[in-house]
Amino acid sequence: MEAHSSPRRNASHTRERLLNAAFEEVYHSGFRGSDLNTILAKAGVTKGALYHHFDGKDALGHAIVENVIAKITQDKWLAPLDDVDDPIDALIGILDSTGTSEAEVNGGCPLNNLAQEMSPLDEGFRLRLSEIFTNWIDGVTDALRLGQVNGKVRRDIDPRETATFFVASYEGYISLAKTAQDARVLRSGIRQLRVYLEGLRPPIKTA
Amino acid sequence: MEAHSSPRRNASHTRERLLNAAFEEVYHSGFRGSDLNTILAKAGVTKGALYHHFDGKDALGHAIVENVIAKITQDKWLAPLDDVDDPIDALIGILDSTGTSEAEVNGGCPLNNLAQEMSPLDEGFRLRLSEIFTNWIDGVTDALRLGQVNGKVRRDIDPRETATFFVASYEGYISLAKTAQDARVLRSGIRQLRVYLEGLRPPIKTA
DNA sequence: TATCATACATACTGGTTGGTATGGAAGCAC
DNA sequence: GTGCTTCCATACCAACCAGTATGTATGATA
């Protein structure tokens, strides 16, 4: 157990700085549009540090997916959905927490951005990104299933198909809003998705 | 009125060859990933021809959007929806016509691919792509509205919000399927979207 | 404190690629 | 058939950028 102060040399700290700077740059220039030197300048380190921690640009990109993007998905979706009583309330809560600032709308979804750009070009990217999508959908699926058990979700819907539909629609709205550069598109999407989710609640027993 | 035979020099023919070759290349390498020389080789012309017809790579990309992608959207969505009696039947028909071959699934949607890659980086791309999305949604919206008049669509739904939801979900599924490289994802999406569309029909008058 | 692996910094290189300069052949005007 | 414009080919250039080679400072270890 070593205490992490901030000596002039701190490997894990440097690695994190690189990852964060690279994520930012990739987020709004794409992976191919990102210049290593720009990333290095933003991270405040030099090329030697980068190639010490990573094998190259591709490896850095893969690490972004595994460390940064996976964590974002985990924090925003999986954690709040874990073992929750009413998944519909939880999902609506997450929807409402979705940022609709100009920067976020114009930037789109980091996960989907990278997936659309790199999936056809690099299997290393695709597999890692695909796994995150799978985990995401799995999380929603499990929550819906538990909700069915708890009587909070209609039993006549298929949890996996419904979860996939929800995720697809959510990502689709973010993509549309990004292209339109219009937050109203995203807010409309959130409203509509809420309506959709409400429709998943069990009908009131008219007995 | 001039007859178009095929002399060794034919400007419009050359331009089309360039556009088609560029579209193919961009479709499966992305715009930035596309090499001009590769496009030229595929088109069977040289750089002189390209720079005679277009100002540069960007202009060629813009022309792809305006000519090729706009036409695809027009043919697949707008034409079949134009002035149709029952938009739900029409939309389901279009859904069923969606290709689910490996190449198409892995390639994704040309419109959305370019939009996600280039919208944040080039306003010329973004505006042109955004316009196509707008036209697409407008077409669905108008069809739904007419369907309401014809009594084929529930009157308690908002045509524009519904059309946007439909397009977003459709694109979202295509994106998911592309990343997963799994046609089943897309086919599941088509099924779910059909269910969604069926739900837009007016309830049966129980009188 | 001598040693050595770790953790960086600096300078350079080579390939890729969009773009340009130049020339020439085809076709229309007259 | 001469001149001019359109259309296209060829050769070359310059910038950008990932990657490398090399050097050096740090700090753990013994």
Automatic annotation (TrEMBL), chains A, B:
The keyword Nuclease does not apply. PROSITE patterns: HTH_TETR_2 (PS50977). Residues 12-72 form the HTH tetR-type domain. InterPro entries: Homeodomain-like_sf, HTH_TetR, Tet_transcr_reg_TetR-rel_C_sf, TetR_C. GO terms for molecular function: DNA binding. Keywords: DNA-binding, Transcription, Transcription regulation. Residues 35-54 bind DNA. The keyword DNA-binding applies. SUPFAM superfamilies: Homeodomain-like (SSF46689), Tetracyclin repressor-like, C-terminal domain (SSF48498). This is Transcriptional regulator, TetR family. It comes from Asticcacaulis taihuensis.
